[in-house]
Design a protein that fits this description.
The protein has 498 residues and is α/β, with parallel strands linked by helices. The protein contains 14 helices and 14 strands. The strands form four sheets. It has a six-stranded mixed sheet. It has a four-stranded antiparallel sheet with strand order 10-11-9-12. A two-stranded antiparallel ribbon has the order 4-5. About 3% of the residues have low confidence. It comes from Phenylobacterium conjunctum.
């Protein structure tokens, strides 16, 4: 399937909210009350370890492909629980696949993330309190994500053993979700080819199993090369690499008027010289392009490249471009979404202590809006959201090769923006860990039901096949490049990121 046809297939999924796909009678086999109680108790008993792991990873605050301590911690927990762990899969040293297999049966995968975001070093305080020497923070709550997913997996594995459930449970330790596209390499390596369903969760400001479309994206770095010179005595001998970056940025900003709706273009200058009186011979700018349709992303990206070409010509410089990330748009699965939603409702919302509520109220003073804190006690209505107006995720690529379902739980203070110091603060407190435990319970109940519901897995696969079209063939948006293991490291004039 070409990218344009892939985009058309994605757009057609909007019909899912009003029109049923090919009917296949299938309802998840509910767990017995004792089995459900067993799983929920197992997660509750493990809540201390989930919290401990989440706080350690919060303190590690390791960015993409540098999550050595975070990955090792989760691996050790899984090994101790009886999982077989393969490390360094798909060419990524901090990636792993942990497996527990008990005979022939369904293969269910749980996703785990653990990378932090640069520039968000923040204490677990309700006011802005930067931490000296800390260059990153968990503004997307991935410290909670990885810890809860592992906690859920341990509970499911124990349930499988005690109830002689056949099948294979896997945990995919996936690094560098924030721009590094770690899961893309897992998919490209075929590590999901035999998986019957993939389940995941994400920290949020609400409790919801609504399924939806994310934005496809391509990200990469444009490195300009010029000639240094004394900016006052010999400016004619200099060719400013920073001029190249700035002319490119101006051209791209004019481009914004002439791109399709919902296209997003972001950039940050990562290197622009060291002193005003030295014409910089190296400069780097880091770009993202997003849109619900991957074909549009490809087209807009090519136009951004032309802006770089023009800028180099105009400034007498040269440039190199490196695509460092690229993901599809998320493909929702209604069949699995309804199973996830039912289990989230069985788990219920979240209750905060007076101390947690006071923390949240203080933090909300820094926000532009202060939604009702009681919302964390509720479960949002189930639906399929097709506006594609959110961010991007490398979970999307998995969703095009195996049925995939996720949920959000309230780990942040309502009203908080994504990728903010407020999220870092909440993710380092019991507000965050309570939401993580709720997520672990929902993941565990959902996985258990899927292990004993082959008809649901069959229907989910049929839905996936119908959504993506009969001639779909997966091709990564970032091509065949190896993982960009250095994409978070400081730029250098040598052409790489070291």
């Amino acid at each position: 399937m070409t990218l344009s046809r892939l985009g058309a297939a994605l757009v057609s999924t909007a019909l899912a909210s009003t029109v049923a796909l090919s009917p296949l009678a299938a309802v998840a086999k509910p767990l017995s009350a004792p089995q459900r109680a067993m799983i929920l108790k197992a997660v509750d008993d493990d809540a201390g370890q989930i919290s401990d792991a989440a706080m350690k990873i919060w303190n590690f605050a390791e960015v993409g492909y540098q999550e050595t301590k975070s990955s090792a911690l989760l691996q050790e927990q899984l090994k101790a629980a009886g999982f077989e762990v393969k490390v360094g899969v798909a060419g990524m040293p901090t990636a792993f696949v942990a497996s527990y297999k008990n005979g022939k049966g369904p293969v269910i995968g749980i996703l785990a993330e653990y990378d932090a975001l640069p520039g968000l070093g923040q204490a677990a305080e309700p006011t802005k309190t930067p931490v000296a020497g800390r260059a990153a923070g968990h503004g997307c709550g991935h410290n909670l994500f990885g810890a809860a997913s592992v906690g859920a997996a341990v509970a499911i594995k124990d349930w499988m053993v005690k109830n002689k459930v056949q099948g294979e449970l896997r945990v995919y330790g996936s690094p560098a979700e924030e721009g590094g596209s770690g899961k893309v390499y897992l998919v490209r390596a075929g590590l999901f080819d035999d998986v019957d369903a993939a389940i995941h969760w994400h920290p949020g400001t609400e409790n919801s199993a609504a399924q939806g479309v994310s934005l496809a994206n391509i990200s990469g770095k444009f490195r300009f090369y010029g000639a240094s010179a004394h900016a006052a005595a010999n400016p004619d001998k200099g060719r400013s690499a920073l001029d190249g970056v700035e002319v490119m940025d101006v051209a791209t900003n004019y481009l914004r008027e002439h791109v399709p709706e919902k296209a997003r273009i972001h950039y940050v200058v990562t290197s622009g010289g060291g002193a005003p009186n030295v014409v910089p011979d190296f400069a780097e700018v880091y770009y993202y392009v997003r849109h619900p349709d991957p074909a549009v992303v490809k087209d807009v990206w090519s136009r951004v490249e032309k802006a770089a070409q023009g800028a180099a010509i105009a400034t007498g410089t040269t440039y190199k471009m490196e695509v460092t990330g690229g993901v599809y748009a998320l493909l929702p699965n209604d069949t699995l979404g309804k199973v996830m939603d039912a289990n989230l409702r069985k788990v219920g919302g979240i209750s905060w202590t007076p101390e947690e509520t006071a923390f949240a109220k203080t933090l909300q003073k820094s926000l532009t809006s202060a939604p009702d804190l009681a919302s964390v006690q509720k479960i949002d209505p189930y639906k399929i959201e097709m506006d594609g107006s959110g961010g991007s995720t490398d979970v999307s690529d998995i969703s095009w090769v195996t049925p995939t379902v996720g949920l959000r739980t309230a780990t942040f203070v309502p009203g908080s923006a994504g990728h903010s110091w407020q999220n870092v603060a909440a993710a380092g407190t019991t507000i965050g860990t309570k939401g993580a435990v709720n997520a672990a319970k929902t993941l565990a109940l959902t996985a258990a039901e899927l292990f004993q519901s082959p008809d649901v897995l069959k229907k989910a696969k049929a839905e996936l096949a119908e959504r993506r079209g009969p001639d779909f063939k997966y091709q990564a948006m970032l091509g065949d490049r190896p993982p960009a293991l250095d994409y978070r490291k400081a730029p250098s004039a040598g052409g790489g990121s070291e």
